[in-house]
């Protein structure tokens, strides 16, 4: 039996390489084999840090008798959902048409043409309560295929038709969205009110059990109005404070676990995902910027340390996740490592990392670390973001301008990059450009974003430049437009986020139009399902709000023997910028401003520091106030007056003394 998984990029696939199952990786070969043998296909989808994936691998896929039956009656495909999110999304959508409550491992039985007709999650080797044994499931599916073929294929065809109808409806919505149908402030207020109604009044968070961080929804709430006493920010701050002190977060290393089984946040599932922690770092940083609360900064800094100390790999990229299981005192257990005190942990081997570097997820970390490093004045966090961006530039950007989805130790996956990779990478690079003043990051971001937009169309909807996965396309199972959101933003919302920022930097209206048209695909759906479309709702809020841009321009660095002039103010413009919640906050030198301007980022045109002091340019809807050097003389915007008072109270003992 050939071992097709031994050299796979994915650590998850390699962990199944020694199974007695005759696994195929994702590709056309498996379906050709199934058609030649006239047998159904098992598409088994999971990921490296999934606890129940490990359990099923040990119990069922390692069982020689089960494997023998599986090999005789099926063609089996093993898929890493993180390497192939489009495959996972397509089969999850298909399976959800006839099975509720799906998760991972996701085991979908499909025809040789890829149409799903049965599915489930964890199947034990022996029946347990509501879970039938895996052998019984395999036997029933094989018998149905052999004796009731017409019924099976008819049912699979109906599911495929439903999915095709849904894709056509979404595509037709693209044309409608060009007319600019966006939810107004009243609809967004109702979405906030609905989330307030979901709040668990006793333990915080949303709903009962299980409890998830739902970072996109919290991001929408935190930014809805940017006022501390508003319903949205108040709910977000309450939830973040509770989560930060709950069992969902490891207090020693600082990272958050994926979710909690119980309503009181206890009994977490112990895998720690890069996308969760990157988004939560952004949230806690913004919570501190808005409220000035010490707990928000403390949690943010601990998450940042977890990302840099645990998740960042020697090459600069970030691992996609850390396992829930590890070996403690010779015994393989889930979560046992996290029950230990710090001194005891040092004697154990930490849970393994899934060292697969994903473009999109790494970009969430780049964005979060760059802004946190600026907000907290911690250059090492910005440096960590730059290392990750430089790794992606070296290993994930192809010569033809397309992106790589995943790599491990510099080896790149053949999986096609998805729209989330393009959107998240563009947004992360833009954030890094604003924090470092390095225009090359911004020009790369704009180029990548441009590649996702059609050259000439009335409905500029973001799409991956190389199309959808070819196997899924041949099977008619995928749309290149996928607005669905889960635990992190969709490719559509990530691209719209990046485009809105490029619009604010360049004034080029085609980016705003593209963002609004793309968001318009879910303009009717998102306000009614705020837990599922938090990232989209946050962007609708941004579209509805005035555009604010704050640029701080500092004199170019003095010569080696000269000293930069000391600020005459107890609270500097940089101090204020670190807490500013505007849509654009940039800190650049005069030469960097010239470079941005020359590259077409018109916000930076003619931005200088004429008096030799850092100078602030505050703009609203592209109309800029006169430049100022005294923070107290900035016109009122956002919570400037409040922030000046907070910063003065918090940092009076640490900022430089007033110079007369």
Automatic annotation (TrEMBL):
GO biological process: carbohydrate metabolic process
Pfam families according to UniProt: Thioredox_DsbH
Superkingdom per UniProt: Bacteria
Listed InterPro entries: 6-hairpin_glycosidase_sf (IPR008928), Ssp411 (IPR024705), Ssp411-like_TRX (IPR004879), Thioredoxin-like_sf (IPR036249)
Transmembrane segments: none
Span of domain Spermatogenesis-associated protein 20-like TRX: 3-163
Coiled-coil segments: none
Protein name: Thioredoxin domain-containing protein
């Amino acid at each position: 039996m050939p071992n097709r998984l031994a050299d796979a990029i994915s650590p998850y696939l390699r962990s199944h390489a020694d199974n007695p199952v005759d696994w195929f990786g994702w590709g056309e070969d498996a379906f050709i084999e199934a058609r030649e043998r006239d047998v159904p296909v098992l598409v088994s989808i999971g990921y490296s840090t999934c606890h129940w994936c490990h359990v099923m691998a040990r119990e069922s896929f390692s069982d020689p008798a089960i494997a023998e039956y599986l090999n005789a009656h099926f063609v089996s495909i093993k898929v890493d959902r993180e390497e192939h999110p489009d495959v996972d999304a397509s089969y999850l959508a298909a399976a959800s048409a006839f099975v509720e409550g799906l998760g991972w491992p996701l085991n979908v039985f499909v025809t040789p043409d890829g149409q799903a007709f049965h599915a489930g999650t964890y199947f034990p080797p022996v029946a347990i309560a509501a879970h039938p044994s895996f052998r019984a499931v395999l036997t029933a599916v094989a018998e149905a295929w052999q004796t009731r073929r017409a019924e099976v294929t008819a049912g699979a065809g109906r599911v495929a038709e439903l999915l095709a109808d849904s894709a056509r409806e979404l595509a037709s919505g693209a044309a409608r969205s060009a007319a600019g149908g966006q939810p107004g402030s009243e609809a967004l207020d109702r979405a906030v009110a609905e989330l307030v109604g979901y709040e668990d009044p006793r333990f915080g968070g949303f709903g009962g059990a299980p409890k998830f961080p739902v970072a996109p929804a919290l991001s929408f709430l935190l930014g809805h109005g940017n006022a501390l006493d508003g319903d949205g920010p108040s709910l977000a701050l309450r939830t973040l404070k509770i989560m930060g002190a709950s069992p969902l977060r490891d207090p020693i290393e600082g990272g958050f676990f994926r979710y909690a089984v119980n309503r009181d946040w206890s009994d977490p599932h112990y895998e720690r995902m890069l996308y969760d922690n990157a988004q939560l770092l952004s949230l806690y940083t913004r919570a501190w910027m808005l409220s000035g609360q010490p707990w928000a900064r403390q949690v943010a800094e601990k998450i940042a340390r977890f990302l840099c100390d645990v998740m960042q790999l020697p090459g600069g990229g970030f691992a996609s996740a850390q396992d829930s299981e590890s070996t403690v005192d010779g015994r393989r257990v889930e979560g046992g490592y996290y029950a230990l005190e710090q001194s005891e942990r040092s004697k154990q081997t930490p849970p393994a990392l899934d060292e697969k570097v994903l473009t999109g997820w790494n970009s969430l970390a780049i964005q979060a670390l760059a802004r946190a490093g600026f907000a907290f004045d911690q250059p090492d966090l910005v440096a960590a973001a730059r290392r990750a961006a430089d790794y992606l530039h070296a290993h994930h950007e192809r010569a033809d301008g397309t992106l790589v989805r995943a790599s491990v130790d510099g080896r790149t996956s053949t999986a096609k990059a998805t729209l989330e990779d393009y959107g998240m990478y563009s947004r992360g690079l833009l954030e890094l450009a604003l924090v470092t003043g390095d225009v090359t990051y911004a020009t790369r971001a704009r180029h990548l974003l441009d590649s996702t937009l059609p050259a000439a169309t009335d409905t500029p909807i973001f799409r991956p430049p190389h199309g959808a996965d070819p196997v899924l396309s041949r099977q008619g199972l995928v749309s290149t437009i996928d607005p669905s959101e889960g635990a992190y933003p969709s490719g559509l919302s990530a691209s719209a986020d990046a485009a809105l920022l490029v619009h604010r930097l360049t004034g080029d209206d085609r980016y705003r139009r593209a963002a609004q048209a793309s968001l318009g695909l879910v303009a009717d759906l998102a306000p009614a399902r705020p837990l599922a479309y938090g990232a989209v709702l946050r962007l609708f809020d941004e579209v509805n709000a005035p555009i604010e841009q704050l640029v701080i321009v500092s004199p170019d660095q003095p010569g080696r023997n000269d000293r930069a002039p000391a600020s005459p103010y107890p609270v500097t413009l940089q101090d204020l910028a670190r807490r500013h919640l505007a849509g654009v906050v940039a800190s650049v030198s005069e030469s960097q401003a010239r470079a941005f301007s020359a590259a077409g980022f018109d916000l930076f045109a003619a931005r200088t520091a004429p008096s030799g002091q850092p100078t602030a340019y505050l703009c609203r809807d592209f109309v800029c106030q006169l430049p100022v050097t005294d923070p107290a003389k900035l016109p009122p915007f956002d919570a400037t007056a409040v922030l000046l008072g907070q910063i003065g109270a918090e940092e009076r003992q640490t900022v430089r003394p007033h110079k007369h």
